[in-house]
Each structure stands twice: as structure tokens, then as C-alpha cells.
Design a protein that fits this description.
heterodimer; A: about 850 residues; mainly alpha; two-stranded antiparallel sheet; about 45% helix; about 5% strand; B: about 450 residues; alpha/beta; 3 domains; 9-stranded mixed beta sheet; 13 helices
Chain lengths: ~850, ~450
């Protein structure tokens, strides 16, 4: 028996109402449940990737264009242009139907045509005569056949080749004004050759290897004395924070100091080897790459939809650094992993996850114009790819030839063709503010994880909710139509408003339902890339205007200024991403290795050899040590792109052990330390400050969490169904695992200059502002960790007096207190207890407060967050 | 003269604030007895017209020909070819004259237009590059190539502040780019303190909840916290002694002291809930949750409390497309709050010595980018200033007939900076800071004060 549940009258849509007995529900909704239990009956997941193609003339098949030309254009001209074309009698309702752009952006009432979406396309409402206030053409209703043609047209994505109005004349032409040959002379476009290592020095005590020779040669040339060496403790702190982002434990320090005394080189080499083998290395270095990859777990901008599967890319990056994956392979996987051969399902999955690099950028999901959205998305990919790997700002050439670098617009559109010939699958929930959702890529079941599973009951509840919301929506739509027919436009608008929220809930819940398998397990999926079946070359767009293409197409390809002899042709069947990756990783590409070794140098020295780390173009800075840069770039090739080997060579150099001591004469001469006359003093970055705080208090949870708080929260929109509190729940995992939602970076990171996850960032800024001080003084995080540290020292370790103070200093600063500090600490405790007594705080509590306050003071001090 | 080192040694445990100014002979002369606090008010070079600045920074470059640069010829020539590759786009917005001065202002700013007689429009601005990041940095620091102190930091360095329990330079909901409110080589205490973040599109979530967190300690009272902070300070002093020269550590020491004082002061200052209904209405706060209105009202409260330099930020002015609706929306968000701010300052008799500035990093082209957008234009654009000793009701300088480039009485960023400092009683040639053996200035070796706009 099928019993239909309907709700009438006023009722709340609170989820509680839907807690119906599943058995009863099964009986009553047999059909719907059947759909749920037998997924092959289910509605297609969001929209399929193919359909997401932008509604562009150049991007549609010839059949689609033919359909438009034979069915749609004649109907528009015959029935609509009189009032809705620039050349018509007059323009009514602000609506022009004579170009694709104006048709989609619509008139006063909203978008006339929304590709793939009949319900949202007002043109359909109007020609169907569904809404008495909006019946078009006004004097007669179109034949059913024509209406059906329009419906079919919109369902196929509203292919529409009409770029510009005829009156605008012939398409404009593009001619480049850039002299590529001249541009090639810039230093960064010369292939690096291994320079001769300098050998003659007046002072050469710490010159151990070529790196030191280049550094010392530059110092001597400019007349700087050779700096001294840092002490063992300073070196160990550098190594620990740079390689794994955590302070050394006290026993490690003791061991290191004694082995350093007998053989410094061996001692350093041993620690470096040991640290490179820890899981923490990948967490530290992976996070640095995530800055460059502008990693974020939501779309950002106004809509800010969550990316609940982005964490897979995060873990992939960390694992890649830990496996010491050759960096050229790492690049290739991120750009074209989906096109690589793999030995097994797991490797194939990893390759796909890698392409999340291209999919997880910020997106303006509420962009109405599908074509514009597509171009913006591709622009973001071009910008990220060229800056991340080539230190080049090619995105400038979207609207005109690059103003400073030898990059013509044709280069930009050569790259654009590659990305336009690929589909970017980033998921997200459908909603009013997001019509751009895509499917995701299925992964093998063995990779399940990240999301909380749901019980079958929960899923049935959810399914019911969707059905009922949908039913209510239908009712409201009928009511709205009735109201309009009765001339009550105000009420109609009111009802429409009500439907908005309901529709979003339907969209979000549908997405959630789609993410789960029958048994309630989350289906493992990834964000990533896929080649389109019909790759094509992009038209050059005049001034970057999507509705202003030239006749000319830029053949898919790379930047002309960087020619390599091993370039592979892009066939008509391929997007060209794989060839692009090979071009980037070619040994003849002058930029890739230079850019990356410079990043590594920046991460270990605080400043790059080229200080504008993401810009090696003519507006960037010249290298302070050009020969050293080239040496490292060539060396990186020789090391087969091994990041660990490169780090090892730098970390075991004499240069890395230089003292950071101030030298007045040198400072006056070179305050920016361009000659590297000393080691830079560096503030720890946000993650290291937070992780060190957890480490010294004994609270650090070293385990990698399953997914992320964002994957636990699931699909939705930040500030709507996903709340800040949910994302910022306290956790003691390493900072790299905190949820990185765009616009909602956790305070512990944001306050200390965490990189904006919306933008690629090779180097962070350093600020010193009172809000950081307030955080150290008053935040729950710092206070709770300080208390944990105090309780551990005094309770579990049962330390008192001097030994407690020594242990605390060791943990925080890797050194015992000086005599002066010892005295000051004692005076502080005494004064604190006396003041507490005055305030009437009982003794035991006062003691804990004092110890907590002591530990908090160490964590808050400058030494805790600065490396010498 | 006391050197920083000897001062540190002579004062023993007390922190040598003079350390900051010791590097600059001029500063040392002027600060005199107040030297123990780098935020203490300093006398200006000559009597100042403006005591403080409220800088309304419009990120993304607002179109001048649609707002404050009336170009009738552009309207007439709409659709004609421009520069061989594009078509002129007449402003889709009406301009009309306002006030006794008859300043032409676009329909986009009906409320601001009500203050026409207080506005000094500069229609002949120009800057070096038509790229957002560089131009934004140049607007804030005078230099897009190197890291240099920001306008606010220079102001604070030159004048100190009137309330040392608040940062002397506050920037509300700033976009990315700490350099734009940074202090570079000036002591860190002169850096702008950001309150709220633009990325969150949120300045204050609720009336009572300030955008600054961690403003009170859940466990320690002020006395106990003072004991703790004295200890932190002694640890930091030890490090400073050991490092010999470390401005970052000095900055941290300062920031703790300021933070300690801010705990008492800031919550009240930022609590706009205590403002009467009439005032909230004046700023348009009765019309929903207007983030920008909150910023404007907070700016007035901060100004009243003695903050020297307050910056308010508003984004999304980069109208390559969607010019009509985009401008309408943006101007709709800021028009009433700005008018409210001007009216409120005036009724408190604060406008006369508060310099209010409205500016973006550059302007936009008179020719269209498609039919509903404009491209970047650094060759000519507009900004306005009000109060603080500028002539009201003045339209200074001009662009060509279409608004493409500044042609008459051109004002470069350096000139504008020199003029702002002049209004604050500071000579831009003399406001220097010695760093690495050289005296640096906000205006480098450039800048002419635009005397014609000074009242």
C-alpha cells in the first residue's frame, strides 16, 4: 500500500518533523526508497562534467551550433527581436536577446537563460505562459514545437555562438607588439650553466663546499669579514625548525652538543639524515608547498562553498615530500597526473588526487555568465601554474600583451586552450548562489576516509527531508503563480523569497546524499582534472572580454620566450597538459629549477637569492648571488630533482651554520643583508609557533587526522549550514592539519601572518602587532597549553624550584636559564604569589596560576618565536 | 646626544624607548622629555591644520569618470573610437551640481554630494603603474619597488599619538598586503594595527562583540597580569641585551605594553552599541547590517579617542565588467556612511582638524571594456579630501576632455603625500629616518605640496 504524506497549512520545516519511523516510511515511499537503495535508479549526481562546458560558440560541437542556427536564432529574430534587440523598435524590460552575453545576463527581472536550468530560465517561464505577469510574446503563445526547441536548447547548455552585435562590425584583430628575441636576453631566460666554483679566499675557515665558496666569494668581493659560526644549540634549533617545524627535545640537544664538540660535520650530517626521515619533514615542507599551491578547503569569495575533499591533496603533498618524490615528477602529477600511466589503482588514484592542485583555487561560484566563469577559472589556473613553477606572471597577458615581460597575449591563449580543453572537477553543492557545481572523481573504495559515516536511518531521514522540501517548494511555486495571476505581485515576491532558502537546502542535502553509498559509508572521491573529449584551441579575446573573440585561435602551446628542444607536439586528441608539464620540467627550461631551489633557499634562510620569489620577470628582483642560484639549479638536476638531497646539501653547508650576530659596520653597509654577511634572524611562522607551543606543553598530537574538520563538516556553504565554530573546534593536531577555509583561517595562524589561502604565496610577511600580544596574553589556546606544561612539570615530573625552571627553559629555548634569568624567575614567582595573596587567591590555586603564568611567559617571549 | 646603547645601559631595567628615536637626530630634538614613550605626542614642524587622518581606501580603483570627474564631452563622444582599439563609453550616470560651490558629482553619491562645499576634488591625480598591487603599494608607501614605511606609519612617527592606550595607527578590515600598513624600517610600534579582516567580509559581528579577540584574561586580574608582563619584559630585555641590535624584539616589547593598555580602552571605543539611534541612523546603520557604516562610525569613535591615523577599507572596485551594477552597489554601500561620517565630524567640530581622504589606487579608462566595463588607468584619476585644512567646494586640476589623462595642475602620488604631511604640520623634506646610513623620506626625493588646495 502506498500512502502519501502531505503537509498542509502552516508548519515548521524543522528537521525534527522528519523523524518518521523508517519502517513506516519505507512502506509509504516505496518508490523513492527504491531509488535510494538502488543507486542506478538515482538521479545523476549534480550535473555531469560534460554538461558543465561553458556556453561558448567555440566550445560547442557543430551539431549544437547547428541546432541554434536552425531552430533558435530564427525564432528569436521572428518573435523576440522586435522588442529585445539593440536594432529593434525599442528595448523592453531592459532585456536584449541579441547576444549570448545579454541573453544570459538578462533584463530587469533576471537572467533570461540559464544554461542547463529550465526552472531558472525566465525565458521559458515567459514563453510557456506559466506566469500570468510574464507572458511572452505578449500577443500570442508560441507553438508547442518552438517551446520544446527552446527547452531542448537550454537543457543542452544553451549553445549560442552570437558573440557581438552586428553593428559592432567585424571582429577586432590582435597583433603582438612584443619582441620575443629581445625579451630572451633577460637573465632568467638563459639556461643555467654550472659556474666555476671560486677557490681563492683570504678567509675560508667555514668554506666546506661550493655553496660556501659562492657565498664567501660574494662577501669578500664586497669587503665583508667572514662571519663566525653559530653555537651548537642555535644550529640544532635551526635544523629542527627548518626541517620539521618543531623544537628539539632536551635529550636530543644534550646528545647533539656532545657529538658536535667532537665532530661538528658528522654531528650535523647525522641530525639532518635523521630529521629527513621523519614524518614531520613532509608536514613541514608540505605545508610550505601548500602556500605556493594556494591550498584552501573552500571556494572563497562570496559563496564560499566547502571543498570537503581538498584534504586528499594536502595529504598527497605531505606524502610526496616524505617519499622524496622527484620534484619533476611531483610537478607532472599535479598538472597532468590523470594522463599518466599507473601500475595499479592506488597509484592512479594518487595521480588524480595530485591534479587537485589545479582544481582547488578560489572560484566565483555566483558568476551568472557560465562562459565568464570558465575563463576566470582557467585564468586562475594559468596564474597559479606559471607563478608556482616558473616564477612568471603570465596572467597579465589575458587582456593585453604583458607590459613588462616578453609574454604576448597569444601565449596566454595558448595556455588557455590547454586548460579550456580540460574539465576542472571541484564538486560543491548546488544552490542559488552556486550553479557551477561539478561532479568529482571516484576513487577506489580502499581510499575511503575523511568523512563521518552516516547510518542508513540518517540517510533515509535526509532523503525524506529532500522530498518534503521539494514538495513544499512545488506548493509554494503554485501559490506564487496563483498570487501573480490574481495580481498580488507583492505576495508573489514574498513567496518567491521563501522558496530561495528551501531550494538551497534541497541542493545541499542532495549533494550530501550523493556523497554516501548504500551502507552509509562516504564514497571516496577527489577533486581534479580530466581531459575533454574534444580539445580545441582558444580564440584570443580582445581585452580579455569573453564576448569579444578574434577570428584567430592560439594553437595550444607554452610560452614562446622559453623554447626547449624537447617540446612535444600536442595532438588533436589531447588537452596538452602532459606536454605542458614536460615542457616545465624539461632540463632546458631555465626557470623551473631556479624557481624551486630559490624557494628552498628562502625557506631555509628567510630570504631568497631572488627575493621576489614568485616573480623572476623583469619587474622582479635580480639574484643577489646569481652564480650560487645557477649552481643550485644545475645541482638540483644532477640530484635527479631530489628535494631531500638538495635540503641535505644546504643544511650541511658552512653557510647554514653562519652566526646571525649583529655587526655594526656590516649593517650600516648592507642593512638588508644582500651579501649574506650573517645568517638572518627569523621569526617562526605561524604553524611553528603553534606546534612548538603544543610540543613544549606535551600536548601535541602527532597523528595525522582522518581528513579534516572540513571533510567532517561536509558539503555546504560557510556561514550558512557550515558554521565557524564547527570548523574551529579546538584540536591538538599539527597546524598543517587545521581546516583552511578561505576567509576563516584559524586565529592561531592568521594572527601570525599565515599566507592568504586565496593567493599563491612563496614568502610570508612578518608583522608585529598588539593583537599578537593579546593572543599570547589571553587566548584559551596559550593559557591551556601553558597550564598543561605547568602541570606536567610540577605534577608528573614532580619538579620543584631550580630544576623545574631549568627544564622549562630547556623545552622552550633549548638552553638552561642564565643566572640572571634564574634570579628574575624566582623574583617573579615570589611577586606573583604575594600579589595573588593580596587578591585573596587560595594558596594551591595561586601556585598553579604562578607556574602557568611562568610557562606562559616563556611561550610569549620573543626568544620562543625567533630563531638566531 | 644619548645613544641607544648608552641609554639602555643607563636606565638599567627600564626599557629605553629612546632607542627608537636615537637613530634620528630630528626626532631626538623634537621628542625631548617625552622620549620615554615612542607614542607620546610630538610637536609638528609648524602649526598643523589637521590633527588626524581618516583615510577611506577604495581597493580596486573606482572609475573617476562615473563618480567625481564630470566629462560631458565623453558623453557626447560615446561610441566613438578611442586610441585606435576601443570605443569611448560615456558615463551611464547623471552628474549634477551641488552646494554653493556647484561641484559636479554623479548621481551615485547623493548623500556625499550634500557635503559638496566641504569636498576638495583633485581631478588630476596620476600614478606610475596601472597594476593593482604596485599602485596600491605606491599609494600607501610612495614606492612600489622596495619595502617602505606606509603613510600612516610616517604620520605616527612624526606626530606620535594622543592616546597611548590605543594603537596610533589603526586599519579597519584591511585587505591583504601588510606592507600597506607596515612600518618597514621604522620601529614596529608605528605599524598599523589591523582590526577585523576584509576576507571575512566582517568587521564587527554584533554590536557588542568587537572585532578584536582576546581582550581580557579569563584568569588573571590586572595586577597579576602586570606581574606576568613585567617578567615577560625582563626575558625580552635579556634577549635584546644578548642580540645587541634587534628591532623586532623591541617591537614585541612595545606591543605587549600597548596590548596591556588596550585591554581597558579598546572594548569601549569599539562598542558602537552605545551610540544613540540618531547617530546610527546618520550613518545608515538603521538600514541593515552595513559593514562599511560600522567602520565609519568606529573611525569617528577612534578619532575622538585620539587615534592619529585611521584607515577604512572597501573592496571590489575593479569594474572591468559589470560597471553599472557594480558601481551602483559599491557606491550604495559607502555613500550614506561617508556622508554620515562627515556630518558627524562636523557637528562635533572635528572636521576642521580631521583630514578625511577618499581614494583608490588609480582610475579607469574613459573607453569601455566591452559595453559595461572600464580598464585600468593610472594616467589620470580623481580623489577627494575634506576637512583638516583643505579648501572645500574646490575642483582642483583636470584631465583631458574624456578623462584619460591628467593635463592641468597634475598631482602625483608624491605630491599628494607631501600635501597630506603639510596639512599635518610636517615638512616632507624634513620628516626623515636614518636607516643604514641614509636619511629616508616618504616622498623619496620628490613631492611638491599642492598649496592651492590648502585653506
Amino acid at each position: 500500500m502506498i500512502r502519501k504524506i502531505t503537509f498542509r497549512g502552516n508548519y515548521s520545516l524543522s528537521p525534527k518533523l522528519f523523524r518518521v519511523d523508517p519502517v513506516e516510511y519505507l512502506n509509504s515511499h516505496a518508490m523513492k526508497v527504491a531509488r535510494f537503495l538502488f543507486p542506478f535508479l538515482a538521479a545523476p549526481l549534480a550535473i555531469s562534467a560534460q554538461e558543465v562546458s561553458p556556453s561558448s560558440g567555440s566550445m560547442f560541437t557543430s551539431q549544437q551550433t547547428e541546432f541554434f542556427e536552425s531552430k533558435i536564432r530564427p525564432a528569436l529574430i521572428k518573435h523576440c527581436y522586435k522588442c529585445h534587440a539593440e536594432e529593434g523598435d525599442k528595448v523592453k524590460g531592459g532585456l536584449l536577446l541579441d547576444t549570448r552575453a545579454s541573453t544570459q545576463s538578462g533584463g530587469d527581472s533576471g537572467p533570461a537563460v540559464v544554461p542547463f536550468d529550465l526552472a531558472q530560465s525566465l525565458l521559458i517561464t515567459a514563453i510557456r505562459y506559466d506566469d500570468s505577469s510574464l507572458e511572452m510574446p505578449p500577443k500570442y503563445k508560441l507553438d508547442a514545437e518552438i517551446i520544446a526547441d527552446f527547452e531542448k536548447w537550454i537543457e543542452m547548455g544553451a549553445p549560442d555562438p552570437r558573440e557581438r552585435r552586428k553593428s559592432s562590425g567585424a571582429p577586432e584583430e590582435y597583433t603582438s607588439t612584443i619582441d620575443i628575441e629581445e625579451g630572451r636576453k633577460h637573465w632568467a631566460y638563459q639556461v643555467p650553466a654550472k659556474p666555476t666554483t671560486p677557490t681563492e679566499f683570504t678567509e675560508n675557515e667555514w668554506v666546506r663546499d661550493p655553496i660556501d665558496a659562492f657565498v664567501r666569494a660574494r662577501q669578500e668581493e664586497a669587503g665583508f669579514d667572514a662571519p663566525g659560526e653559530a653555537d651548537a644549540r642555535t644550529i640544532l634549533r635551526r635544523l629542527h625548525f627548518d626541517l620539521v617545524g618543531l623544537p628539539p627535545a632536551a635529550e636530543e640537544l644534550t646528545r647533539f652538543i656532545s657529538s658536535y664538540e667532537s665532530d661538528p660535520d658528522a654531528a650535523v650530517a647525522a641530525v639532518v639524515d635523521q630529521l629527513l626521515e621523519t614524518e614531520q619533514f613532509g608536514e613541514r615542507w608540505g605545508r610550505r608547498w601548500l602556500d605556493v599551491a594556494r591550498y584552501g578547503e573552500s571556494s572563497g569569495k562570496e559563496t564560499n562553498a566547502t571543498f570537503p575533499h581538498a584534504w586528499r591533496y594536502r595529504d598527497y603533498v605531505i606524502d610526496s615530500f616524505n617519499e622524496d618524490k622527484p620534484f619533476n615528477q611531483f610537478i607532472t602529477e599535479q598538472l597532468a597526473g590523470d594522463l599518466l600511466d599507473a601500475e595499479n589503482k592506488e597509484d592512479a588514484a594518487e595521480n588524480i588526487i595530485a591534479t587537485g592542485f589545479l582544481a582547488l583555487g578560489t572560484k566565483g561560484l555566483n558568476e551568472q555568465n557560465a562562459r565568464q566563469f570558465r575563463f576566470d577559472l582557467v585564468d586562475e589556473q594559468i596564474d597559479t601554474t606559471t607563478q608556482a613553477f616558473l616564477g612568471t606572471t603570465a596572467a597579465c597577458a589575458r587582456c593585453h600583451d604583458h607590459k613588462f615581460d616578453p609574454i604576448p597575449m597569444s601565449d596566454y591563449y595558448s595556455l588557455a586552450g590547454i586548460f579550456l580543453s580540460s574539465d576542472t572537477l571541484f564538486g560543491t553543492a548546488e544552490a542559488l548562489q552556486n550553479r557551477k557545481a561539478t561532479e568529482l572523481i571516484n576513487l577506489p573504495a580502499s581510499l575511503a576516509g575523511g568523512s563521518a559515516s552516516k547510518s542508513v536511518g540518517e540517510l533515509i531521514d535526509l532523503e525524506m527531508q529532500v522530498d518534503m522540501l521539494q514538495e513544499r517548494l512545488n506548493e509554494l511555486n503554485v501559490e506564487a503563480r496563483t498570487a501573480r495571476r490574481e495580481g498580488d505581485n507583492e505576495r508573489a515576491t514574498q513567496i518567491r523569497q521563501q522558496t530561495l532558502g528551501l531550494r538551497n537546502r534541497v541542493g545541499i542535502n542532495r549533494r550530501i546524499l550523493d556523497s554516501y553509498g548504500d551502507s552509509g559509508n562516504a564514497i571516496p572521491v577527489a577533486m581534479g582534472m580530466k581531459d575533454r573529449p574534444e580539445p580545441f584551441d582558444a580564440q584570443i579575446l580582445i581585452r580579455g572580454e569573453e564576448d569579444n573573440p578574434t577570428e584567430a585561435r592560439a594553437p595550444r602551446g607554452f610560452l614562446e620566450v622559453i623554447e626547449t628542444n624537447d617540446e612535444e607536439p600536442i595532438t588533436s586528441k589531447e588537452s596538452g597538459r602532459l606536454q605542458m608539464a614536460h615542457w616545465i620540467t624539461s632540463p632546458e627550461n631555465p626557470l623551473t629549477a631556479r624557481v624551486f631551489v630559490n624557494r628552498v633557499w628562502t625557506w631555509m634562510f628567510g630570504e631568497g637569492i631572488v627575493r621576489s620569489v614568485d616573480n623572476f620577470g623583469t619587474t622582479g628582483e635580480a639574484p643577489t648571488h646569481p652564480e650560487l642560484l645557477d649552481y643550485l639549479a644545475v645541482r638540483f638536476h644532477e640530484l635527479d630533482w631530489s628535494v631531500k638531497d638538495l635540503v641535505r646539501e644546504i643544511a650541511t653547508s658552512g653557510t647554514y651554520r653562519m652566526s646571525s650576530e649583529h655587526n655594526k659596520v656590516a649593517f650600516e653597509k648592507d642593512p638588508e643583508n644582500m651579501h649574506l654577511w650573517r645568517f638572518n634572524k627569523r621569526r617562526l611562522d605561524a604553524e611553528a609557533i603553534r606546534d612548538a607551543t603544543l610540543a613544549v606543553s606535551g600536548e601535541l598530537d602527532p597523528e595525522r587526522p582522518n581528513g579534516s574538520l572540513v571533510s567532517q563538516a561536509g558539503d555546504g556553504f560557510v556561514g550558512r549550514n557550515i558554521q565557524e565554530l564547527q570548523l574551529n573546534a579546538p584540536t591538538d593536531v599539527r597546524s598543517v592539519y587545521l581546516p583552511i577555509v578561505r576567509g576563516l583561517v584559524p586565529e592561531s595562524l592568521a594572527l601570525f601572518d599565515f599566507a592568504d589561502p586565496s593567493l599563491l604565496s612563496g614568502k610570508r610577511e612578518i608583522t608585529t602587532v598588539p593583537s599578537q600580544a593579546l593572543y599570547m596574553m589571553n587566548s584559551d589556546f596559550v593559557i591551556q597549553n601553558a597550564e598543561a606544561m605547568a602541570r606536567e612539570l610540577a605534577g608528573e615530573l614532580n619538579l620543584r624550584g631550580g630544576p623545574l625552571v631549568v627544564e622549562a627553559f630547556q623545552r622552550c629555548y633549548s638552553r638552561p636559564p642564565t643566572a640572571e634569568e634564574g634570579r628574575k624567575t624566582k623574583a617573579f614567582i615570589d611577586r606573583f604569589l604575594a600579589t595573588a595573596e593580596e587578591s585573596g587567591i587560595e594558596q594551591e590555586r595561586a601556585r598553579i596560576l604562578a607556574l602557568t603564568s611562568f610557562c606562559q611567559s616563556l611561550i610569549s617571549s620573543a626568544e620562543f618565536r625567533y630563531l638566531n | 646626544m644619548t645613544t641607544r646603547r648608552s641609554f639602555l645601559q643607563s636606565t638599567g631595567s627600564g626599557f629605553g624607548y629612546l632607542a627608537f628615536s636615537a637613530l634620528s637626530a630630528l626626532a631626538a630634538q623634537r621628542v625631548g622629555a617625552a622620549a620615554t614613550n615612542p607614542l607620546a605626542p610630538k610637536t609638528s614642524h609648524f602649526p598643523a591644520k589637521a590633527k588626524r587622518v581618516i583615510f577611506l581606501a577604495m581597493q580596486g580603483a573606482p572609475s573617476h569618470v562615473d563618480t567625481f570627474d564630470y566629462k560631458p564631452q565623453l558623453t557626447k563622444d560615446h561610441g566613438k573610437d578611442a586610441r585606435g582599439f576601443a570605443k569611448l563609453l560615456g558615463s551611464p550616470f547623471e552628474f549634477s551640481q551641488h552646494g554653493g560651490s556647484g561641484l559636479p558629482i554623479s548621481e551615485l553619491f547623493p548623500h556625499v554630494a550634500g557635503h559638496a562645499d566641504d569636498l576638495c576634488l583633485i581631478n588630476s591625480m596620476h600614478t606610475d603603474l596601472p597594476n593593482h598591487p604596485q599602485a596600491t603599494t605606491q599609494m600607501h608607501t610612495g614606492n612600489f619597488q622596495f619595502v617602505r614605511p606606509s603613510l600612516g606609519a610616517w604620520t605616527l612617527y612624526g606626530l606620535g599619538t594622543e592616546n597611548d592606550s590605543l594603537p596610533g595607527f589603526i586599519t579597519l578590515a584591511p585587505p591583504n598586503g601588510a606592507q600597506n600598513y607596515g612600518s618597514a624600517f621604522l620601529p614596529a610600534i608605528y605599524q598599523g594595527t589591523p582590526i577585523g579582516r576584509q576576507a571575512r567580509n566582517r568587521f564587527v559581528t554584533k554590536d557588542k562583540q568587537a572585532a578584536v579577540s582576546n581582550l581580557s584574561n579569563p584568569r588573571l586580574d590586572r595586577d597579576l597580569q602586570r606581574v606576568q608582563l613585567d617578567y615577560v619584559k625582563s626575558l625580552n630585555m635579556e634577549k635584546l641585551k644578548h642580540d645587541k641590535h634587534n628591532p623586532e624584539v623591541e617591537g614585541i616589547i612595545e606591543s605587549y605594553e600597548l596590548a596591556f593598555r588596550m585591554q581597558d580602552e579598546l572594548p569601549d571605543v569599539l562598542d558602537i552599541a552605545e551610540e544613540p539611534k540618531s547617530i546610527r541612523k546618520l550613518y545608515g546603520l538603521d538600514q541593515g547590517n552595513n559593514n562599511f557604516a560600522r567602520q565609519c562610525l568606529s573611525a569617528r569613535r577612534l578619532a575622538e579617542a585620539g587615534v592619529r591615523f585611521i584607515q577604512i577599507n572597501h573592496g571590489n572596485w575593479d569594474h572591468h565588467r559589470n560597471l553599472v551594477n557594480g558601481l551602483r552597489q559599491n557606491c550604495g554601500e559607502i555613500d550614506k556612511p561617508i556622508a554620515g561620517l562627515l556630518a558627524d565630524l562636523k557637528q562635533r567640530d572635528m572636521l576642521k582638524d580631521t583630514l578625511v581622504i577618499w581614494a583608490g589606487e588609480f582610475g579607469r579608462t574613459p573607453h569601455g571594456q566591452s559595453t559595461n566595463g572600464r580598464d585600468h588607468n593610472n594616467k589620470g584619476y580623481s580623489l577627494w579630501m575634506a576637512g583638516g585644512g583643505v579648501k572645500g567646494g574646490l575642483r582642483y586640476g583636470s584631465t583631458d576632455e574624456h578623462g584619460y589623462q591628467a593635463v592641468e595642475n597634475k598631482v602625483h602620488i608624491h605630491d599628494w603625500h607631501a600635501t597630506i604631511l603639510h596639512l599635518l604640520g610636517l615638512n616632507h623634506d624634513q620628516l626623515t629616518y636614518r636607516y643604514a646610513g641614509r636619511d629616508f623620506r616618504l616622498t623619496d626625493v620628490h613631492g611638491n605640496v599642492v598649496k592651492d588646495i590648502v585653506a
